[in-house]
Amino acid sequence: MSLDTVAQAVARPDTAQPFKELGLKPDEYARIKEILGRRPTSSELAMYSVMWSEHCSYKSSKVHLKQFGEKAPKSDALLVGIGENAGVVDVGQGYAVTFKIESHNHPSFVEPYQGAATGVGGIVRDILTMGARPIAVMDPLRFGPADAPDTRRVLPGIIAGVGGYGNCLGLPNIGGEVVFDETYIGNPLVNALCVGVMRHSDIKLAKAAGAGNLVVLYGAKTGGDGIGGVSVLASETFGDGGSTKRPSVQVGDPFVEKVLIECSLEIFAEDLVVGIQDLGGAGLSCATSELASGGSGGMKVQLDKVPLRDPSLSPEEILMSESQERMCAIVEPSKIVRFIEICKKWDVTVTVIGEVTDGKHLEITWNGELIVDVPPRTVAHDGPVYNRPLAQPEYIDRVNAQTISVPMPQSSAEIKAALLKLVSAPNMADKSWVTAQYDKYVQGNTIQAQPDDSGMVRIDEKTNLGVAIATDANANWSYLNPYQGAKLALAEAARNIATAGARPLAVTNCLNFGSPEDPGVMWQFAESVRGLADGCLEMGLPVTGGNVSFYNQTGDVAILPTPVIGVLGVIDDVRTRTPMSFNKAGLELYLLGTTHSDLAGSEWAFLHGQRGGNSPTADLQNEMNLIEVLLAGRSEKIFTAAHDLSQGGLAMSITEMVLRHMVGATISLKDTAIDLLSETPGRVIVAVESSQAGALLDLCAKYKISLSKLGTTGGDSLVINETTISLQELKTAHTSTFPKLFG
Amino acid sequence: MRVGVVTFPGTLDDRDAARAVRAGGLEAIELWHGDADLKNVDAVILPGGFSYGDYLRCGAISRFAPVMTSIIEQANKGMPLLGICNGFQVLCESHLLPGALTRNSDLHFLCKDQVISIENTNTPWTSSFSKGQEILIPLKNGEGSFQCDDATLASLEGEKRIIARYVGENPNGSRNLIAGITNTRGNVVGLMPHPEHAIDTLTGPSADGLGFFTSILNAMVK
Prior knowledge:
- The structure holds 2 protein chains of 2 kinds.
- By secondary structure, chain A is of the alpha+beta class.
- Chain A is built from 27 helices and 28 strands.
- A 7-stranded mixed β-sheet of chain A has the order 8-10-7-11-9-12-13.
- Chain B has helices spanning 14-23, 66-76, 86-93, 150-158, 210-221, and strands at residues 2-7, 27-32, 43-46, 81-84, 100-102, 110-118, 134-141, 145-147, 162-166, 178-182, 188-191.
- In chain B, helix 1 links the parallel strand 1 and strand 2.
- Chain B is globular.
- The termini of chain B are close together.
């Protein structure tokens, strides 16, 4: 094919172009022509198609996401907000922390190992790009039924991919989720979170300022992998019998990324860049247009200078390639020699591919011929915006009207059977089979990891300052009531931070939904965003960034609405955190919070094939009071242990506590079945020394948190009223599920 | 007392090893793979990680790094040398230690807290322990299964060159539960689990790993 230049585009305006195949709608194509005053060249078309894809442009979600800005609470902690590669939060002592969560759902279904691996790689580069050293990762995952044949293909590959990439980067994996539901069978969810730390003064932004500054591409060479990953894969529904989309999946090389991290941090330490952007979704199209529109407005790039793994790649392919482990920096000419020296030290390929200009144009040439001449903002920021129709789906009224009818265990034998059934259910069972494949120790700063309520890492060895992160979603509740579901997930993540004694500071999110072209899905999405924005406003937590993943749908079957909420918190001294469990007898156990009959959306209902009723209503004022109790309990040294109640209710939480150090407990419950299985939000179990019981009472009274005594710790069994279950039997039930299923 | 910690491209536990060296009361000196200069260190640690990505056999490329030429030369003269995890793999590839580390028997990367028993306390890295002492330190690797031929195994056993063994279930299929070995001279030690990640109970499962670093301090002071 001959080269399609700007001159050709002017000379031959009527050339037919494959905009539909590239995922653009006819009106979007018309708009490109209107912007340019001519037809786009094939290279320009390639750029617009990837940058205007759902994945990159947020064209269906933008009108809703702006609520995160409009409803943003006042926060002194936010240093960099939404719009940059990742938000940055002040955590004190001169430190800033950046964190973000992203999806890599579609590629991980097509090619589980590489899809998951490059999901980790991409989010780590986003964090690095802000100027931070990545310090930990987390991975909330969702799969089809645990015993489904395809889950046995997808799950081991995804776990190995997350581990294979993260372990090789030297990033501790400190938590996540593994959840099974039939709606994820054709659309597993791979969300990856990364957190990084830097000094305030080290924050880097994606901008190409200063005419004459150089555009430098460094890292891996560009290959043909991942071409159109965002437009072809992530912005389309999987259909039946379509062509295989494997070539759209990127292939990762974690070693190159590890070297790229160390090389970049050395470059940042010497202050050698004006602006920086990683190459992720939409590759060079994204990096050049975003850098140019973030800066003074113009850029010239010689595309033929891009180092290639495959010399046969066309300019269009180079612009669309999503080859991993690449970064684009803007460097002052006086600093380029040192920049290149550092790259050489790390054996990182480095090439000057262009320069920043005064104009308002992004001009790209191929062997001297002009193939792209566009206003960069029109590519990066002025994509189409859709106010898609939304309508409450018919199922809502129907399922909300259903009453839950599940067996309620009464006799000792029934209670024991129910407990063993619950703790061995795939969603509830011990996840060591998964987490044992992740390195949680590397970097030597991990304070908490799975199965703790949150992941916690120390960021200063002298002062013991640390951060804690938790990610949560309850898709069953979001299905019943997406507005409440999002608020409840936010509350749960914040609570999971606070049980250890860390104060919640900021929020990130990964919003996983079906097709935005379905008004019902769009309504779920809009309600979730509204719920999260309202919740964040009420709790005073700013949203620092996030990610939307649509088209998680196979045919007509959409996934459950799955807004994964990540909350970051800070703790002044990690040594004084409250652990999630106890390792001694004679402690008193208390339940903070009130239990109602909340079985709708519960794990117990799920285990009995029921997904109806009304979700609980979030009481965020109460949640904030509970958080204050948890923080004060830590700082006043009242608690010996604290553990959140969520999926699986009190039955699950007390089981996790007694199995942690194999120290039993004896508890008495009044309404045993409901007390054990209800999932009323806003509850925490705490263990205290008897001498602290009075202080606990006072604390709860001060913050109006109800308190009930559960029992005491000790022994080698879990005793619930007249029911005794040996810890060994409980442990066997809890830990056998994954090895049985996945070998 | 200066202990060098080598960084290859892809090394991950170098800063952790340096921290452990300092916790043991020694000075940690950064050594770079491309630099043959050992900066007058008294001992060297090859830390864990995935040197050069380990896409070939683990450690197979690192043995050719310029720093390794100097390290092998000094080790042959008696300098204490400890290879942890990937470092152990490098030592085997460098033929400073016999055998090879192969893929874990269950084919998964495995990260767990592992009990090992210290069997040989005559090396400069294990002298702080008592013989038969059981310690708890993290094990984390994908290729930790120690393999060698029968004759090598017999000589390792006969010469008491097995410095540590896994206690309980074999985590990775290593022959004779071998977690670590030493050379004939006793100055070079390879260990699969990670003592540098068990120097305090805040970040590790125990502080048992510290013994490796206090041992080397004692060895140098003597």
